[in-house]
């Protein structure tokens, strides 16, 4: 023993080969039992587990540790260093209990291992004194601390030496906890669940695939994920489980692409008459990036296979005009186009801008939203059905059942992250019927979330990608500052100066939900206060979600036309709003918004030639919010911010599974698991090539898992 302890610290040998064992019989039914089927889990504990998530044993097995503490490092006591995380084995020499001045109980043990002694201390657990008698051999794991100049362990994990090491001497899983569920109880439960059930989980990966890719079996991966024997085993377990997620993701995405490729579309070929007039009439020329993307789109639209294109461009990069160019091309070919935006304000802005550009070319543009009056609506529906309206702009009102088009050949979705996969599909269904065949419109979806290319391809593998990687000329970096509430007056002064020079300003109040009346009231009250006390000599406008559509439109119109200097708003103007003369945006309660959202808000300024400013006001922010605000101050680059956002929030939240129609990934990181992602992509393609319908018996489980995985994203087709 002493000899062993005298050795230099060595981590546990990294052998991570999966032991050969005959597989246990899968028991999918047993696994779907509620957690109470586990010994030691009663109604109470089940409720507590439910609060974290798992309802069934199967789900419990997929409740992975948040992190691990590494206690594999064993050391003799004489070699301990301050601050390190270690495990020691020794004999208890003495145990005593005392009280502090504030009547806290403290249990202290002196532990000796033949090389030295160390003190271990536990607070407020007086019963430990009985469990730790002198003479007991114990294992202690924890961080080496200092107390009065001596090395100590404060509240270390411990267990008697002879027990199977559950808490100490290993890589210890740290689970998410909830009130009434202690770390050790949780580990005990998990160990039981893993021991009794991990082997019963049916492995959807055919064994041949698994061998070829050198992946652990699912059972072994689950075991090692919870109770890893080494770092290498943990890495491989994670790899196998991440592969499962990315593989299912890829299968879903690729299946969708295969389905879409079966549709036909109207090939749009015609002399580009109006298109050329349109270009010539623009007040600016297209940037090289815009030109390139327009060419890509126009080429796609000449095909009889529907275009499926994702256009990415940071806020302000000029996506609208690209959409307009595509829509005009469709009209040249005698077809109709539709442009769907996530808010009425944005739809109205597109309508105003595009009508002005396109009506002189003889193109008939209409606006259809939820607040279009019934009479007008009837006229528009008739015009869309008989083809006299060439371009329909609107909100999701466009995809409602009564809307039919005579010959819809191009559908554009703006700010696609606000729409789900279903809405994309619904718009697609608005294409014409030719004989027996449903014809799909060409589809262009636009997004300001500039996610990395590899990521975009894996998530939207069903779409081709175009990127606007160039800003229109003359743009300047928006200067961003974070101020405390006490410094708000500085922001107001700044607005006074900017508006005196003829520029315009936004002041944003935090609104969590567009329909949240409390926030609307906050905006109204602030609007009154600002009008009275702060900017009596400026013209103020107000827009929030509680206004009627025509009131909103009126306020936006006035602001866009320079009829007001300062627009007080809630988050209804978060996306898309384009008033190039505005140069300053003040965001109150900035800590309440996410990074992507703040970047969107900031994108309301810096859209013209003038230097622009963004002022974030926040007080008492959390550490996490502080990181967001600092990131925003540091860069204007939406690409960099998106990566940062992904890191801070993880892809699940980043893409908001409900909204994006993407399933939630628990383990896999779309940013970091690049190799696994590649592997998943290749395997998915190979699988579909061999067995397009997943009909082979060895793919039956995979097919089930695929349905289940995508079901949670609200998309099954
Ligand atoms: P976003 O990509 O955020 O949707 P917009 O399409 O709203 O951006 O364009 C932002 C602003 O840039 C608009 O005022 C638009 O008129 C202007 N713009 C677009 N393209 C160009 C260009 N090539 N040259 C100059 N200004 C442009
Ligand atoms: Mg836009």
Measure the end-to-end span. 63 Å
Class based on secondary structure composition and strand pairing:
alpha/beta
What ranges have pLDDT less than 50 throughout 5 or more consecutive residues?
Answer: 1-14
Q: What fraction of the residues are assigned to beta strands by DSSP?
A: 15-25%
Q: Please give the count of helices.
A: 25
Q: Sum up the overall morphology in one term.
A: globular
Strand order, main sheet: write it out: 11-12-10-13-16-9-17
Rg, alpha carbons: 31 Å
Which ligands occur here? adenosine-5'-diphosphate, magnesium ion
Largest sheet: 7 strands, parallel
- Counted beta strands: 23
Question: What's the average pLDDT?
Answer: 87
Helical content, roughly? 25-40%
Can you characterise this structure?
This protein is α/β, with parallel strands linked by helices and 717 residues long. The protein has 25 helices and 23 strands. Strand 5 and strand 6 form a beta hairpin. The longest helix has 30 residues. The radius of gyration is 31 Å and the shape is globular. The N and C termini lie far apart (63 Å). Bound molecules: adenosine-5'-diphosphate and magnesium ion. Magnesium ion binds next to helix 12.
Please describe the structure with a list of short key phrases separated by commas or semicolons.
717 residues, six-stranded parallel β-sheet, globular, binds adenosine-5'-diphosphate, binds magnesium ion
Topology, element by element:
Layout: H1 2-6, H2 28-31, H3 43-52, H4 57-61, E1 67-70, E2 85-99, E3 105-112, E4 117-123, H5 128-131, E5 137-147, E6 150-154, E7 157-160, E8 171-174, H6 183-197, H7 207-212, H8 218-226, H9 231-260, H10 273-281, H11 288-301, E9 308-313, H12 319-332, E10 336-340, H13 344-358, E11 365-368, H14 374-386, E12 391-394, E13 408-413, H15 421-428, E14 433-434, E15 437-438, E16 442-447, H16 453-459, E17 464-468, E18 479-483, H17 488-500, E19 504-508, H18 517-534, E20 540-543, H19 549-560, E21 566-569, E22 582-587, H20 595-602, E23 613-617, H21 623-634, H22 638-655, H23 657-660, H24 674-690, H25 700-711
Parallel strand pairs: 4-6, 9-16, 9-17, 10-12, 10-13, 11-12, 13-16, 18-23, 19-21, 19-22, 20-21, 22-23
Antiparallel strand pairs: 1-8, 2-3, 2-5, 3-4, 5-6, 5-7, 14-15
Bound molecules: adenosine-5'-diphosphate (ADP) and magnesium ion.
